[in-house]
Amino acid sequence: xxxxxxxxxxxxxxxxxxxxxxxxxxxxxxxxxxxxxxxxxxxxxxxxxxxxxxxxxxxxxxxxxxxxxxxxxxxxxxxxxxxxxxxxxxxxxxxxxxxxxxxxxxxxxxxxxxxxxxxxxxxxxxxxxxxxxxxxxxxxxxxxxxxxxxxxxxxxxxxxxxxxxxxxxxxxxxxxxxxxxxxxxxxxxxxxxxxxxxxxxxxxxxxxxxxxxxxxxxxxxxxxxxxxxxxxxxxxxxxxxxxxxxxxxxxxxxxxxxxxxxxxxxxxxxxxxxxxxxxxxxxxxxxxxxxxxxxxxxxxxxxxxxxxxxxxxxxxxxxxxxxxxxxxxxxxxxxxxxxxxxxxxxxxxx
Length: 350
Description:
Layout: H1 2-28, E1 33-49, E2 52-67, H2 90-119, E3 121-123, E4 128-129, H3 134-138, E5 145-149, E6 152-153, H4 157-166, E7 172-178, E8 181-187, E9 190-192, E10 197-199, E11 202-203, E12 207-209, H5 213-239, H6 251-265, H7 270-293, H8 300-313, H9 319-348
Antiparallel strand pairs: 1-2, 3-12, 4-11, 5-6, 5-7, 7-8, 9-10
Helix pairs in contact: 1-2, 1-6, 1-7, 2-5, 2-7, 2-8, 5-7, 6-7, 6-9
């Protein structure tokens, strides 16, 4: 029961932040909000305040902030109401659509600030080097600070772990700092037959840093940056065929992940549970923000593409044609969602 409650709480926080971004900026631009919904499917509970209906729906697989006229349907006389979505100028509509993903990133940043302020962070300082490993052979020593890998700046030790985990045996050009002096080192990770992946040969979780107020903001940004990198690298792996269907999860898989994680950290106390769940919120919020910015029909990114085309050509594409494109995209995403949910359920019973 605790796992279900935690999942619903996490889901609600992430979805509400996204839809509230649309809602707030849309209202600021004078656009009428018809319905603000959390969840999808049949309505469990709703109430009306002013012009807006607020709804809680059965299925925890999304949410919606529906604007008047957003579907492109005009009034009986063929004229959009002055407070309809399409009556707003193009930049107001761009700001309204972009605000959803933006608020996901802001939510992730706020939660990152809290975590870093209370739990500190992990600087990319080497704690242990495995004997006879690629790292030792390359000359990396305990206490070395890793500055960059293959030209990619590193601020957290988890970034080192992420780059190492995704490495497929390619050479790694590493810049370290030792005794205040930077050095360039190259190494080729070594393959582990037992684990089926390549390793640099570094142990530990980096150097713990208790952040001062300035560092809280600095490392709060680095925290969000890390999750953004982890998300787009995972997407690239999926696009390139380096990830399988088992690496993708929908609401059911996420709920199971939340439950399993809760059971693992519960013995360490309430503070560990809170910070771990906040990390999951950051992960999911960044994922939702990035996925919605993809230039695909039915997503915020797809809508932004049409609006940017409008800016370039000086006039909008026919709302009916745009609506057809987004509807087709929505159908595809619904089919994909069914597949992902089926895959989540099948993984439970393996």
